[in-house]
Amino acid sequence: MSIECHCDGEVKYDADGCGHEWLDCLKCTRHLETYQSSDIFNDWRQLIATEKEEVKNMKKSIETIDFGNSKIPVWIISNGQKMMFDRPAYIDEDGGSPLSQMRDDECIVSPGAIYRVTNE
Ligand SMILES: [Zn+2]
User: Fold this and answer.
1) What is the pTM of this model?
2) For residue 73, what are the CA distances in angstroms to 36, 117, 120?
3) How many Å lie between the centroid of ligand 1 and the Cα of residue 27?
4) Cβ within 8 Å of residue 84, ≥6 positions away
5) Of 34, 58, 87, 100, which alpha carbon lies 20 to 30 A from 18's?
6) 48 alpha carbon – ligand 1 mean position (Å)
7) DSSP per-residue codes, 58-91
């Protein structure tokens, strides 16, 4: 069964045989882990649909900062919450960005960029 990510990256499926299943996009590192899901592929499609909706509702600053080869907004507003760019994410040798580097009030927005909630 093949599944797509909305970044057009290739999505890899893995399972441990005990009910845990994973889907990982090799391009944008989007990650989904489920336990005894009836249909992980359907869960993934819902995740993508939700994210597309969020992107549509997301506001961002016109002001940008150079980040690698691209420019990213200084701040974004997602679900009514303003977030400021904080730092580049640490990328491990498998190309993943470990969630242990994140505080509870942070999230990865553009690939590899960590934003933090601000009350400004
Ligand atoms: Zn992707």
Assistant:
1) 0.54
2) 38, 14, 16
3) 5
4) 74, 75, 115, 116, 118, 120
5) 100
6) 9
7) -EE-S-EEEETTEEEESEEEETTEEEEEEEEPP-
Centre of ligand 1 from the C-alpha of residue 19, in Å: 24
- Under the banding of pLDDT at 50, 70 and 90, the label for residue 61 is very high
Give the list of residues 6+ apart from residue 103 with CB closer than 8 angstroms, or none. Answer: 116
Q: What's the CA-to-centroid distance between 23 and ligand 1, angstroms?
A: 10
Q: Are 49 and 55 in contact (CB under 8 A)?
A: no
CA distance 63 to 120: 16
Looking up tokens 């489920």 gives 34
With tokens 């961002």, the residue in question is 60
In tens, the pLDDT along 77-103 reads: 887 889 999 999 988 888 888 888 999
Residue with tokens 């093949």: 2
Mean pLDDT across the chain, nearest whole number? 88
Indicate the length of the chain as a whole number: 120
